[in-house]
Amino acid sequence: MKVRTTVAAAFLLLGANAAGAEDFFEMSESEPTRSADRDERAIDLSATFTQRIHYAVTEQRESFPFRREDRGLASVRSDLLLTARHRPASDLVIQVAGLASYDAKLNDDPATVEVEQTYVEWGMTPAFNIKTGRQIISLGESNYFQIADRINPIDERAFGLAELRESSLPVTSTRLSYYQSRWGVDLVALHEFRQNLYDEPRGDFDPYIALRDQPLAIEEDTPDTFMIVPDIAGRLFWSLPWGDVALFASRLHNREARPLKAGADVLTLDYPQITLLGASGNLVLGNWLLKSEYAFSDGDLYHVEHDENTQTLSAEGQAHQLMVGGRYTGISNLTLDVELLNTIISSVDGSLDEDRARTQGVANLEYEMLNDDLVASLTYMGWVNEPASMLRARMDYAVRDDIVLFGGAIGYSASDDAMLAPYRNNDRVFVGVTINL
């Protein structure tokens, strides 16, 4: 039973990823980075410091071996992002960035240093652009789900608390882009495998918390880094008078580890290589930007029935995902985003032991005040099949152009048999400050 709970939790965290994707309309119309109006040979240096404090308002569940037992501070995290940007020529941009983080409440690795978006971008012609290095590539239509676009891994160390636009992690890749006035092509080669980032063992959002009190080792079959034969992805898009249309195709490894098999003392995790085919589009209709995204996946792993004589937990299968949603801007200073995602597992090599059809949705309401200096937002995410939900309220106040204060609260609810059940006592309030130097 605990193995099944753990598998369910892992699948939940994959399905609930909130990808910090840019709006597709903005993506297709934007110019390459190199086209920015800058002085040649200038070096721009910048720094961003962020301090976050999370306070858990409820005691942790006694039925799971979480490290935190009582209410109290759950995270005290400091982030420092340093960026150097150089433009030696009008058609060339070089950027180097690094992120140093420290969380006083972590046990295993409280301090980390990561290479952030570090790349070289060269405009070979006005229409052809090449960008290589660690970068975030956002090609999909959805602002909250990874559907046809699964290029970048996601930071889910605190589910629902990470700022959506900051949740995507850069990955080493090469992007070739060819743009015309109304259509374009993107080809992406991934030279690095980087999995999703999750909470540490026994943390409040540990996806394998149900197994931590058992003598069970967890092994991961991590894919090799592909320099000569990389993972690949591509997009062909058109910008039409009434909206945008795009076609996607990719062959890449899943960023979420799937529980593959369980032995007497070992749980083996795998990152399956999947084929994705998809399409997306949006339509401007009055004050609405209507959008949709579809993906067919082949080769992903799904939970199948097993007993004490069977070690296999997952088997390969095929699935269809369809997102429909929209953004409403008809009221001054107010923006409403709504997305509904339906997933159907069409076939699997075995007897399926999870819901064949799943539905989840997101609604986000944002209101700007005081000449946009104060922004209030309310976000709701819900699951239909196994009742569970997350509700988050947040406010951001720009004291000055370079100083932003933020704070809010988040609450979770779930039925006893829902995949979110182990984490339903993680309600908390959070405050923080961001300083741009």
What distinguishing features does this structure have?
single chain; about 425 residues; mainly beta; Porin; 18-stranded antiparallel barrel; three-stranded mixed β-sheet; about 5% helix; globular; disordered N terminus; signal; DUF1302; TIGR03016 family PEP-CTERM system-associated outer membrane protein
Structure description:
The protein is mainly beta and 437 residues long. The chain has a single domain, classed as Porin, CATH 2.40.160.10. It contains 2 helices and 22 strands. The strands form 2 sheets. The protein has an 18-stranded antiparallel barrel. The longest helix is centred in the N-terminal third of the chain and has 14 residues, at 2-15. It is globular and about 65 Å long. Residues 1-31 have low confidence and may be disordered. Keywords: Signal. InterPro entries: DUF1302. This is TIGR03016 family PEP-CTERM system-associated outer membrane protein.
Q: Average pLDDT value? A: 88
Q: Report the top-level CATH class.
A: Mainly Beta
Order of helices and strands: HHEEEEEEEEEEEEEEEEEEEEEE
- Number of discrete helical segments: 2
Fold blueprint:
Layout: H1 2-15, H2 24-29, E1 43-56, E2 72-89, E3 92-103, E4 111-115, E5 118-123, E6 128-135, E7 171-179, E8 183-190, E9 217-221, E10 231-240, E11 243-253, E12 258-262, E13 266-270, E14 273-285, E15 288-303, E16 314-328, E17 334-348, E18 357-369, E19 374-383, E20 388-400, E21 403-414, E22 428-436
Parallel strand pairs: 9-13
Antiparallel strand pairs: 1-2, 1-22, 2-3, 3-4, 3-5, 5-6, 6-7, 7-8, 8-10, 10-11, 11-14, 12-13, 14-15, 15-16, 16-17, 17-18, 18-19, 19-20, 20-21, 21-22
